[in-house]
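Let us practice reading a record.
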Amino acid sequence: MKKILVASAALLIAAGAVDIAPAAEVKPGVQLSGDARVRAVYRDDFDFGNSDKDGETYLDSRVRINIKGTAAGGAYAIGRLRLQDHRFEDIDTDNAAGAKREDGNIWVDKAYIGVPFSDNFTLEAGKYRVTYGTGFFYEDLNLAGLRGIIKAGNVEINPFVEWMSEGQSSKIKADKNEDNDEIRMGANISADFNENWKGGVLVAYQMDDRTEFLTDEDGVGYHMEPNEGWLASVYFEGKQGNFGLAGEFAYNDGDLHGFNQAKDDNNDDFKDSIGGPDDGYGGYIQPSYTIDALTLALNVGFTMDGFIADPVFGFVMVGADHSLTVTSVGNYGDWLWAGFIAKYAISDNLSVTGNLMYATVDGWSSEGLESLEDAIEISGVLEYTISKGAVFSWFAGALFPSFEDPTVNDDPAVGTYGRLQLKF
């Protein structure tokens, strides 16, 4: 309770930087929106041929429905339902209660409220998803807690307090009895410098009071490193005439390696084994130039000492966080990469994008997949707008690796998939 009071007080104090006056009344009601997709996927050698697994083909689908209920005074509640997020097969699971998300056909990944104290300050609390920056470091993260939305002219400030692990939900008796939580506190400050350029800064500190020494049923003890320390980033993006530029530079404490990956935060063994104990950092810069219907861009960057970019950052086989993603940028070792991107709009409804990326990697180990030395990606995307809100996309690519360990196979990972996506 003390931590909750401190967190709430901190956000309200931050809100004191702006005038708090009643927000304007709005029309109450419920709004529905959402998206849906169907994909047909082929993938082969995504482990570079280091198993006896054959190439795989499958179809999957998903429907997401956003629900927003608004009160007369402007306060709102937002939830998002995910329906049948699964591969095609005759699944008889009609009740998802108590099931893992993959076993049920309905589940929720957003559920939070927002209260506007004024036109300049809104407090949100609950289960939400957040993006700060350009997608390199802190993109669409699944979080739960409290965050403020403070607007002052062209500046927006987002102080936040988020629970990564709640002691009262722990299966570890000591953590539950002692209310040992894992909490992240920080703020994001962003600004529109003018109508074409924007940027910002993110700074946060994560505390972890959970039990460090565990004993299993056989009395064997384990030492679990706390996931605590600082993380930060600075980012910008904009354009001037035909020229565009985006970039981001980020840092995280060594104990926080992998915090932005799709992994269970309680899996300390995974996170604390990434890249060793050193603090990690990385960054990228992407200049671009548009000539009529053609846009050319060069994405160059680096990761060091265990830093891993957000899964969505990258190209097609490296990054992108979709059916053809083989690895996140920065996985396996320290990366230095350059990627050439060319996008051409054939018509208002049809465009094609080509990628050619080369990365040199200083692997975390001289053995196994973590001895990766080089990677080359060749990939492409075709997008066709069938009608307003309905888009067909076709992705294809190949990733060619090389490893220091001569016993590791280095077959190229290849894949392709088509996606029909609706937004409503």
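A brief commentary: The CA atoms of residues 159 and 187 lie 4 Å apart.
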